[in-house]
Amino acid sequence: MLQLLADPRSGLFFYDITSNGPVGLFANRNHAAILLACCSVIVIYLYRELRLKIRPALPYLAAFFALCILTNPSPAGLLALGMAAVICAVLQFSTKVRSRRPEREAKRLLRDRKIYAKLRLLAAEGEQRHARFDEPIEPLSVYYGKQSRPASWELSPFPMGKQANGRPMPQWEDLSQWMKVNVAVIVGFEWELLTFNINLHPELETELTRQGNVRKKLAERVRKHVGRSIGFRREYYSVLEGHAKLTGAKTHLNMHGTIAIRAGDSVKILMAALARAAGHDIGKRKRIPRAVHSQWFTVIRAAYANYLFKFARRRDPRLDERRLVMSQEMTQAAKMFWNDVARPELS
Questions:
Q1: pLDDT at res. 309
Q2: Model's pTM, two decimal places?
Q3: How is domain 180-327 classified at the architecture level of CATH?
């Protein structure tokens, strides 16, 4: 429009050879149609990724752009519309696939709660068998028994075998995040377990959120700071969340988790390392009051995992759908234990 109002010799005309009319990328019907096709893709992307107030109207806007192209006799526009339709279909399909992940996790959780109930029931039976033979319970002996005792004693009722519905026990990779934490808790009782609850420093949260993939970057920070303070290859896990426990209101991101403590470890040094991993006490970032808490883990029960994942299904734009971070060492130990007590390959 500015070119129509301006002198043809002005700087608004980008080159000299013209058709006595406007010049530029979108000066004719082909260029305008390509612009509309590009806008259609952008609108569908916004519909897929953002939660805007005008979100319900965006598909209609994309359809309007497509209608404008169809009523415009432009071969380039029709070609661009076809390409845009393919791109939009791919975007929409990926959205549907991604939207099924919470559904799959919910089904896994429902199944795993039943499996965990069976596991705890068999563990109680193992404790009764120990009492029957007047055998003290040692770490994991209710699951493995004791090699030093006769096989006829049958101190352990494991492995579990099949599920209550007759299906094989799931592989470790198919377990819900909730179940993986519960298995890790059982394995962790080989050591002393320390629970922690640490709020991210607001400046670090802003930085990680801007960069994206908060869970992965924070996991690497924890690995480095913990490793430098008490040694690498440690068993731990944590869950990220960003809502207040009592009100459910959105708050700063925080990580709840558990770490195995070995002889000679300093809890004070460890908690200082976790605080630095969360952005506290680094440079000018002073520790925020009441941002770091710890407590010894004492009782194996599902309530702890319920607490960790209480907001796991609540959408948080700062986080992805996976909230669990588990160290490689903890994963290996928990996976080995699960394969031993569940024997999914033999079920």
A1: 87
A2: 0.69
A3: 2-Layer Sandwich (3.30)
